[in-house]
Write a structure and sequence with these properties.
heterodimer; A: PH-domain like; 2 domains; 3-stranded antiparallel beta sheet; elongated; B: mainly alpha; 0% strand
Chain lengths: 188, 80
């Protein structure tokens, strides 16, 4: 059985802030007495593709320059290199922003899912009382090995379901969400 | 007529490639400047939606990118 709230007052930030307990953050529309229990981001391992691409992107002009020197003007080569590096750093920055702001939030009153894709953000939320079921799905070798997976939170009726994809410790997340839901039912 | 003569002289002197490189540079620089401006605004907006303990580094990086984009555009206009 996963541990739910053994250290309730203890703030923790695991795996590059992808799994934070009691993170002490504020978000838009937060109620006065609402406490953020958990913030979730995709496991850092899922970001390895853009990190690798960015690394090779930075190195690439150094290789291409060998063939360009003597064939193109120095100012054009310099401009090309600077522009390319700026593009690569923007690509890396955009992916970093996507990772940082694609966040799942579990509070003592509700669950929220903030999704960000370029110039588009979407915030879905479900009240704890409306949570019907929470499931964790872990598939594949790496997800098993590094303990991350998808969490699906189903809500009652036609309200939107919440998904936290590739988050660390999915079973613990389900346990926490279930406890929040259970507590809200107990209060009503 | 003088403009057309100058244009033909310009093409005949073999500066056409340089001219296209400059136009290409200015166009790309302009698009990139617009992109970094959007990114900067996005960071400001997103930080209002969810607080992140980044100590202002995300916005700082976005602003640095914006300044680099201005430098790239100026380089394309003046030097390239």
């Amino acid at each position: 059985m996963p541990e739910v709230f053994s250290d309730t007052d203890k703030q923790s930030h695991d795996l590059f802030h992808s799994y934070c307990r009691f993170p002490g953050i504020l978000f838009e529309g937060q109620h006065e007495h609402e406490i953020v229990l958990l913030t979730l981001r995709a496991h850092p391992l899922t970001q390895i593709i853009w990190i690798t691409l960015s690394f090779f992107g930075f190195v690439l002009p150094l290789i291409i320059d060998v063939f360009l020197i003597g064939r193109a003007s120095p100012s054009a080569i310099f401009f090309g290199n600077i522009f390319w590096w700026a593009l690569v750093s923007s690509f890396a920055f955009y992916n970093l922003i996507r990772w940082v702001f694609n966040v799942g939030i579990v509070t003592n009153e509700r669950v929220l899912d903030v999704d960000y894709v370029f110039i588009q953000k979407e915030v879905s939320e479900a009240a704890a009382f409306d949570i019907a079921d929470a499931d964790a799905k872990t598939t594949g070798f790496f997800q098993d090995l590094f303990n991350f997976g998808d969490v699906f939170i189903q809500t009652a009726g036609t309200k939107s379901n919440i998904e936290y994809l590739h988050v660390p410790h999915p079973n613990e997340v389900v346990a926490i969400v279930s406890k929040v839901s259970h507590d809200s039912h107990g209060n009503n | 007529m003088e403009i057309i003569d100058n244009l033909f002289n310009f093409i005949q002197q073999g500066n056409l490639f340089t001219f296209f490189v400059k136009v290409f540079g200015i166009a790309l620089g302009g698009i990139y400047l617009f992109f970094t401006l959007i990114m900067m605004q996005q960071v400001i907006t997103l930080k209002k939606v969810v607080g992140v303990h980044d100590k202002g580094f995300l916005l700082l990086f976005a602003q640095i990118q914006f300044l680099v984009a201005i430098a790239i555009l100026l380089y394309a206009v003046v030097i390239l």
